[in-house]
Amino acid sequence: MKKFFFGALLISLGIFGCESDDGYTDSPSNVVDYGNSTTFQEMFMLISIKTSDSTYLVTESIDSLNIYVNNQFWSCTNSSSIDTTHIVKTKGIDYYNSSNKINYLVVAKQNALISDFSTIGDYAKYLNDQITLKDGEYACLLESFQIKLNDGTSKTFAPYAYTIFTVEPDTYNAYLGEIELKIY
Q1: What is the mean predicted confidence (pLDDT) over 2-8?
Q2: Torsions phi, psi for 50 (to 5 deg)
């Protein structure tokens, strides 16, 4: 009799205790947002490198450009390669120079410092390192970069140049403009 009574109680609670409302809302505070908004992912810029004698550095590409947004790591990227054989240039001690301004295209997509996840903590760090840029203005730091010298070796320069850029609503990328880095 006790088993019958207990079973009937469970069935009645199951039938009458459930509501049709599941308690979930369509509010924007849900953890996963399936909205149609576009997240900001990349920035692009034209970089020229001015030397101490007011000429411009000539190299195939700018390598290992470290970029920070509001003091948080954004990307380590390279510029697009250019063909330097058609550029009028003079040979300096370590690198070629030109009196004409040479721009290097840099497209910097966001990437985090961790690429291998061996623990849950590594994955959590990766997620925490992701920067979500909302509408507004941000400071972009071009911390350091490398170039190949005439002898084939690489040299690192650290200009610590800042530029300001604006993220517009629902944009994927932003153009930071022409940026002149000075090396001495």
Answers
A1: 53
A2: -100, 135
Q: Do residues 148 and 154 touch, judged by C-beta distance below 8 A?
A: yes
- In the numeric block, which tokens belong to residue 113? 């410092």
pLDDT tens digits for 12-45? 545 544 444 444 333 333 334 445 556 888 999 9
- Residues 183 and 104: their CA atoms lie apart, in Å, by 15
Place of tokens 């009028």: 88
Tell me: the pLDDT tens digits for 118-154? Answer: 888 887 777 776 778 889 999 999 999 999 998 899 9
Instruction: Compute the distance between CA of residue 113 and CA of residue 18 in angstroms, rounded to an integer.
Output: 47
- Does residue 11 form part of some domain? no
CB 36 within 8 Å of CB 104:
no
Distance CA 33, CA 169 (A): 16
Can you tell me whether residue 146 is helix, strand or coil?
strand
For the CA atoms of 23, 27, 30, 36, the dihedral, rounded to the nearest 10 degrees, stands at 140
Report the length, in residues, of the chain. Answer: 184
Please check whether residue 9 lies inside any domain of the structure: no
Q: Domains in the chain: how many in total?
A: 1
The 3-state DSSP class for residue 93 equals coil
Tell me if 23 is assigned to some domain.
Answer: no
Conformation bin of residue 136: beta by default, left when phi > 0, alpha when psi is -120 to 50: left
